[in-house]
Amino acid sequence: MSEQSTMTGPPVGPSGASSGGAGLSPRQRRNISRGVQYAVFVVLAALVVSWADWAAIREHFLDMKVAENLFPEIFTIALKNTVIYTVSGYVLGFFLGLVVALMRLSSAAPNRWIALVYIEVFRGLPAVLVFILLGLAVPTAFPGIRFPFDEYGVVAIALGLVSAAYMAETIRAGLQAVPRGQMEAARSLGMSYSRAMITVVIPQALRIVIPPLTNELILLFKDSSLVFAIGVTSATSELTKFGQDIATEYADSTPLLLAGATYLLITIPLSIVVRRLEARQAKAR
To answer: 50, 87, 170, 279: which sits with the fewest CB atoms below 10 Å from its CB?
Structure first.
């Protein structure tokens, strides 16, 4: 009797699927799934294009005669004010958030309680309500209080108070991510706790949380549109208020579309920076 064994059925390939074509390899299934997704996307895009009223879109959203009235003020006034509001609020929020984060990690219980209350209050309140309270309620309740730089000061403080609550938790997470050995090594070299925290721990923590802090800058850039709540003038209006005023004047939505596109000129590059920072950190790890 021959020792060669007999096999029944079609031969099996290295992937485990039958070479007779009855089964599909994982790569083939992925390709089919991807092709179906592309086909669905193309069909949906074609439906949107075919259903859209392009004449109405050109009339109400792409009116070049109305768009001409936005320049150059959309850059020299609206965008400039938006950047000023965002940067000033972010700087204030960053330093206040750093202080609150350190208070959250303090060994003194009152410091932790104050920081926790601050974070919960300003994360829980809508940002527009903070604007209204600072711009309208505080001057009414305390007539002697005047904010520096008028509307610019109010917006910077309002954005700073709100963003600090979020950045405090981000920075706290970064501080806790720094290995304890860093602080112990610094103290063993004779550094005080404060000096070790400032020169050793905080710089490492900030490098860790750069991507989320940059995301906060993007969110703050958009939150600057809430300046309408305190009633700014035409000279201190930001992009959304500027576009809304022109849109109301001409009964056309083209200014709002251009204001949105101007936001994207800032937010898209920032988003690209965030992704590259995240990728660099992931590669470093």
So the answer is: 50
